[in-house]
Structure formats: C-alpha cells, structure tokens
Amino acid sequence: MRHCCQFCADDIYYLNDTENYSSRKLYIGFCPICGKPVAEIVQWRFDGICERSAQAGIRANDLMFKCKDEIAYSLKELNYSKFKSKPFGWKFGINKEVKSAGKNRVKQYACDFYGNKELIKSY
Ligand SMILES: [Zn+2]
Fold it and tell me: Cα of 32 to ligand 1 centre, how many Å?
C-alpha cells in the first residue's frame, strides 16, 4: 500500500462478495512516515475490471466502518485464531449503560469487527 511511501499492509480483511463485485479485499496499515491509518479496498467487478480505492486518516476509519458488516474473515484471524476470544485487529470502543442496584453504571468495552469484546473498565 502507499501513502508517504510504499509499505506493507498490517492486516487484510476478506470481504463477502456483492452483486457486482467479487474477490474483495480490504488492506489496512499505518503509514510508517506520518503514522496515519490507511485503508485500501481492492475488488473485481463482474466484467473483469479491478477497482481499487485508498483512503487515509479519518476517511480510512469511515471506509472501515462502511465495510465492517461485509467482513468474512481477516488474515490475522486466520493466523491467530487461538486469540479468537479477545478483540484484535481494528478495534473500536463502545460504552454500555447498565442499571445495577438502582444506579446507572457505564461499562466500557473494546470491540472488534468479529463480535469479540473485552471489558476495559466500568464506572
Ligand atoms: Zn503518510
């Protein structure tokens, strides 16, 4: 992948086929020079055209969120399936409010795109 320089993807997400596209892959990495996250989607259109589009920074995040429901599995997931119960890869945080003993408590989780989550803290 490319941003300020050429570098290797940190992880590759394999996406489910859609009506018009197949062999869809999402490459995720961090630019070694400026440190920005970079996401590049590569997919083959039904008529044999290869389409790629790369985004950096906050737009890489947006692209990732757009694709998150289409992820079939990732390269890291294949290689490190033994860590399956813990969030890995691209993580995001969610807060959950729960009622406990009449008080509202907030539980903070780190989540990944495979449904794994880990409690970080509650208060
Ligand atoms: Zn850069």
Answer: 7
pTM above 0.70, yes or no: no
Q: What SS3 state is found at 63?
A: helix
- Cβ pair 107, 119 in contact under 8 A: yes
The residue among 23, 21, 27, 25 whose CA lies nearest residue 2 is: 27
Digit-coded pLDDT (tens) for 56-86: 999 998 898 899 889 988 887 777 655 555 6
Ion ligand 1: residue ranges with CB closer than 5 A: 3-4, 31, 33-34
Q: In what order do the strands lie in the sheet with 92-100?
A: 92-100, 103-111, 117-122
Average of per-residue pLDDT across 18-32? 93
